[in-house]
Design a protein that fits this description.
The chain contains six helices and nine strands. The protein has about 250 residues and is an alpha+beta fold. It has three domains: about 80 residues, no CATH class; about 70 residues, Enolase-like, domain 1 (2-Layer Sandwich); about 70 residues, no CATH class. It has a three-stranded antiparallel beta sheet, with no helix packed on it. The chain has a three-stranded antiparallel beta sheet with strand order 3-4-5, with helices on one face. The radius of gyration is 20 Å and the shape is elongated.
């Protein structure tokens, strides 16, 4: 029996703040456990899946079982949870359930999410109005072969686009080119990154998972003075591609 779980829709994806610094902050895409339960009900049926939690050492594990009609038996997947909240035990239990579900393919598309960096202070030190205290939402999302190829994120209050990938929408606050760091060795004197180099870098980033993705964008920030691929100059784009052996 082959299970095919659909990709997540915009309203099924939530955002939370990841790493931060003086110039901005990262937004991470995630789903909550209720979405996993809805997808399991939708695809395999309410009575055809079950979950069990157990403790192994200091970790809380969850195993999710789906009944296989062809084999006439339950197929199980298990994983441990981590805590990110004050309610540690509840958080670990929920996280272990979500991770076990990923082993069946639920929400695995989120692993292809791009690095989303929101600028809160521009190159002149002027605040953009975007802060980690604001609320943001996914306005548009698109996939090819279960990988995210289009993503538009907006500020919930102002409805301003703060991040855009694979869309014709212009993102004012992330499209400006910040001043390169003093130790940057990549010239910013030429025009915007060309389409070929941008496509190569975007495709490369989609293959990365943390911590390698974070390492790449930290390198980008150090060498180019920005974490935004769209903000790279023509020469920066070429040098990034050469440095990471993309061309």
């Amino acid at each position: 029996m082959e299970l095919k779980f659909r990709d997540l829709t915009e309203d099924e994806i939530e955002l939370r703040v990841g790493s931060t610094n003086d110039s901005g902050f990262q937004l991470l895409l995630y789903k909550n456990a209720r979405i996993d339960m809805q997808l399991l009900d939708e695809v395999v049926g309410v009575g055809n899946w079950q979950r069990e939690h157990y403790i192994l050492g200091n970790d809380i594990y969850c195993k999710v079982g789906i009944y296989n009609e062809e084999l006439k038996q339950w197929v199980w997947r298990a994983d441990a949870g981590s805590s990110g909240t004050i309610e540690e035990e509840k958080s670990k239990a929920s996280d272990s359930f979500k991770r076990a579900c990923v082993n069946f393919g639920l929400g695995r598309c989120l692993y292809s999410a791009p690095f989303v960096w929101i600028v809160s202070k521009d190159k002149d030190g002027v605040m953009t109005g975007e802060t980690k205290k604001e609320r943001y939402f996914v306005d548009e999302i698109g996939y090819v072969d279960h990988k995210i190829t289009k993503l538009v994120i907006k500020n919930e209050k102002t409805k301003k686009v703060v991040f855009s990938m694979g869309s014709n929408q212009k993102v004012a606050q992330t499209s400006e080119k910040p001043q390169a760091n003093a130790n940057s060795n990549l010239d910013t004197s030429k025009g915007s990154i060309n389409a070929k180099h941008k496509a190569l870098i975007d495709a490369f980033v989609l293959t990365l998972h943390d911590p390698k993705r974070t390492q790449f964008f930290n390198w980008l920030d150090e060498k180019c003075g920005t974490m935004s691929i769209e903000a790279l100059s023509e020469q920066q784009g070429e040098r990034v591609c050469k440095s990471w052996k993309l061309i």
